[in-house]
Predict the structure.
Amino acid sequence: MSISSAQLPELLSFEDPQTENPAIDLPRAQHAIAEFLRALGRDESDPHLLDTPRRVAAAYAEMLTPRETSWTTFPNEDGYQGLALVKDIPFHSLCQHHLLPFRGVAHVGYLPGDRLFGLSKLARGVELFSRDLQVQERLTQQVANWLEDTLAPRGVGVVMEAEHMCMSLRGVQTAGTMTRTSVFTGLLSDAGPLREQFPH
């Protein structure tokens, strides 16, 4: 299930990602992981595997639940018109096709209108949508849509670069390859000096 802007208030109520996410049933997940290990021919009575189902369930619960935050904005009292850009925001997510991680960096910026964000909120927004079963293209679009919906800026730019373990560890096994996705809106839609500030 992907996250939309309409779900933000519900998601922001989570306090402990391992116990307070109402969508996650940890005992059921733990049981399923034990069965998964048996289906792969592993002996769950092996001392090294005894606590693995609990650990895996807790790990996925954490990776699929964003931390609580708020989206306070403040007025652009000084009329700042330039680009607000935060580069190299680290993120990780889970490929919805293989349940394997992909990780990399995001570059997120906007041209303010009447409202501004604290810069840390750009990193928090990336985390919010990353903590889901994802594809990178949708993730990039969701971050851009969130900024548009929350700030009504004059333009938004989101560039994400990530290595996908489903390509590095299996299938084609191309370790080290990076996938880049981007969304530009408003006054950043066309190439120019402002857009050139984003990695390309």
